[in-house]
Design a protein that fits this description.
- By secondary structure, this protein is mainly alpha-helical.
- The protein has eight helices and three strands; from the N terminus they run H-E-H-H-E-E-H-H-H-H-H.
- The radius of gyration is 21 Å and the shape is globular.
- The N and C termini lie far apart (48 Å).
- The model has no long low-confidence stretch (mean pLDDT 90).
Length: 191
Amino acid sequence: MTPTKIPALGYALLGMLQKPSSGYDLRKVFSSTSMKSYSDSPGAIYPALRRLERDGLIRGTVEESSGLRRRQIFRLTPKGVSELKQWIALPITREDVGSNLKTIMLRFAFSETAMGAEASVAMLKSLDSALTPYLQHLREQMQVMMSPAVPMSARLSLECGIRSYESLSEWTHYALATYEKEGRKKSGGKS
């Protein structure tokens, strides 16, 4: 049996199901937070839950709730926990930085609850390692674009990209320092 390719919505659901939830509760989170970018449509969420259940990554059980309504509560299976951890632990590549930042941040958002602060720090270090050569590449492209034949709008567009990646790099260093500071607090100020 070949492994099932899980789309970003599926991983978002796996990450959210670290806390057992109903489909309705998940939809509320998707519709009221930045998770909406993955989908808040019942036409996407419920089929994704069924696929995850079919693949043995989650299990749904019907439970009585207040009132007369019964709800199906979904939980991660051991296989689902393992799949989530493997996805989070993937190294971040230069290609990921160029085209999958949203997915990187989704993985990072779930990393601490799924695997602990060490995994979050490892992700940040992996991101930093991938960002450095990517930024260098963009800066080299900018040098090429300094030709008068290149329209100003093209140069400014590339500069916007460079600045956004520089900002991400600054945030990455800030996040690493925040984890380091928190670690010192927990260890009583010892390095």
